[in-house]
Design brief:
Structural class: mainly alpha
Mean pLDDT: 89
Order of helices and strands: HHHH
Number of helices: 4
Distance between the termini: 18 Å
Helix content: over 70%
Number of domains: 1
Shape: elongated
Number of strands: 0
Length: 149
């Protein structure tokens, strides 16, 4: 059973990196769209039209997709942490103690970023979440480097 858990734990890392990569790319696309939308609204406001706010509704279903991708990435991190915890309970240890720190970053970066985002300033929230996804990707890469004994 221990070897199966280790194999699953090792095989989850590329899935987290893939999900994180897709989420990062989508987040950057949403950031660009939000910036363009904001510029267009500012231009319209200067011409006499009302409003200069970028809202989720202005970005269509793209923000919904971004949230789903964030949820998938965070869920994979949670599964990875649970499996890592089971490995630890069964006596398996990583090659370097920093592996636990990187695992905690993978687990917590997106949920903590979500708490800090206010869900009102769309562009700011996208930036916060993109930085969180970058942290997940970086920590996952480092966790891969420190996991083997």
């Amino acid at each position: 059973m221990l070897s199966t858990l280790i194999k699953f734990h090792e095989d989850m890392a590329p899935a987290i990196l893939a999900a994180g990569g897709i989420t990062l790319i989508w987040g950057i696309v949403m950031l660009i769209l939000a910036s363009r939308r904001r510029a267009a609204l500012a231009s319209a406001a200067n011409e006499g039209s009302a409003g200069n706010a970028v809202s989720v509704s202005n970005l269509g279903g793209g923000m919904r997709v971004f949230r789903i991708l964030l949820t998938i990435t965070a869920a994979l991190g949670l599964i990875q942490a649970i499996v890592g915890g089971l490995l630890w309970l069964n006596g398996a240890r990583p090659g370097d103690g920093l592996h636990f720190v990187y695992g905690a970053i993978v687990l917590l970066a997106i949920p903590v970023a979500y708490v800090y985002s206010d869900q009102a300033q769309v562009r700011r929230d996208i930036i916060i979440m993109v930085i969180a996804v970058l942290a997940v990707i970086g920590a996952a890469i480092r966790a891969l480097m420190t996991g083997h004994p």
